Amino acid sequence: MLSFHVILFLSFSFQFINCENNDLTISKGSIKDEIIIGEEETQPSKIFQATHEWQEIGSDEILPKGLHVRINLQTGKKEAKLLDNEDEMDVHSKVTSNYQIVEHESNVNLPDNARSLRRMDDLKQFSKSNSIKFKDVEKEKKKINVDFKSESELLKASLEKYANENDNNFRIQYLSDLEYFVHSIDLANDLFKMGGFDHLFLDLNKTNSELKLAVLNVIGSAIQSNTVLKNELFQLDLLRHIIILINKSKEFSVLKRSLFVLSAFLRNFPIAQKSFFQLYNGFELLESMLNKDTLLASRTAALLCDLENEYSSAVSNNLASRELYEEIDFKKNVQNTNICFKLVQLTINEQLDRYSRLTLFESLPKLINICSDQFRLALPMLESISAKLSLDDYGIELKNLLKIIEKSNIKDEL
């Protein structure tokens, strides 16, 4: 019976990866890149047909590996397209690689039959297919007498190895294991209860840049869509740790990852936003980010766009958090800085790569209400640039931005 199951399983050549909404996604690939466990159990039924144009992702569609994925801020829908070059890799592809590495390494010391059964047991959680029967998996486990530890136990073991290791190279490897686990909200919360973040914060003060990056990867993965953990880390002063890194870091990679963690922490968390803007001069810090590398500047524009969207939604829909957002007074405080002026200047920066331009032009329309005066003054200049562009992706985005600015002018005149 065991060999029958193993043969059936090995006949499958699917590779499982985790996409932005934690759905199960499948693409043709090697048996080495097996299974990623998400938080939901939705079952896609057809392959997403990617092109070089943005297309909406259907709820029943499977994403192949290596696509660029985004959320359309106007529709709220997830979209994907083919990568235009090898360097334009999205965050989730990087996460997928870490998943695959840890999944492979965690199986290295298991007997072949035990490893196959473990993979079959993981696959059981997602498959509704009648082509493979899993009812005898538990019986087969007992036959081979293998001790299967829970994920929480494996997390604790990885944390202990990390905390007790002095060699930074090994510590970085253990941090990669921790990053794999904390994509699960429950395991991220378990890591906090185990005191894991105390160790992580200590390493943020170390001089080793690779170690800092690994720590930031763990924290960034743990706090996404995890309000409970955000509240706990707010009490542990995570905001101060990240701001210190941003202000003092000279390495681009650390600065970029610190901005990612800051953005993940602030989004949909008005308590942290209030502290960031009122206690840590957050508006000035974001303005300074617009003076740095163009990639960092475009991502700062995207963060500003999301925060404005939160503020507008809370006020217009009279949400329970409305008072907190009103205390921040996002619109007025942005207008009291040079943020709008610098955003306009960024649009004509010749150093912007294609990805950064797309990010910028997707973000700016949401800031029209705040930066209308500066955008109107820049309208002739933007029209001149637009006339010289072919209708490639960012040329279209710029023309759309011009239409929005022009409509805003007409509305104000009326």
UniProtKB/TrEMBL annotation:
Species, as recorded: Blomia tropicalis
The protein's name: Nucleotide exchange factor SIL1
Listed InterPro entries: ARM-like, ARM-type_fold, Hsp70_NEF-Inhibitors
Alphabetical list of Gene3D superfamilies matching this protein: Leucine-rich Repeat Variant
GO molecular function annotation: adenyl-nucleotide exchange factor activity
Keyword Transport attributed: yes
Keywords: Endoplasmic reticulum, Glycoprotein, Protein transport, Signal, Translocation, Transport
Lineage: Eukaryota, Metazoa, Ecdysozoa, Arthropoda, Chelicerata
Family that this chain belongs to: Belongs to the SIL1 family.
Annotated compartments: Endoplasmic reticulum lumen
Signal peptide region: 1-19
GO BP terms, alphabetized: protein transport
Any GO CC annotation of this UniProt entry: endoplasmic reticulum lumen
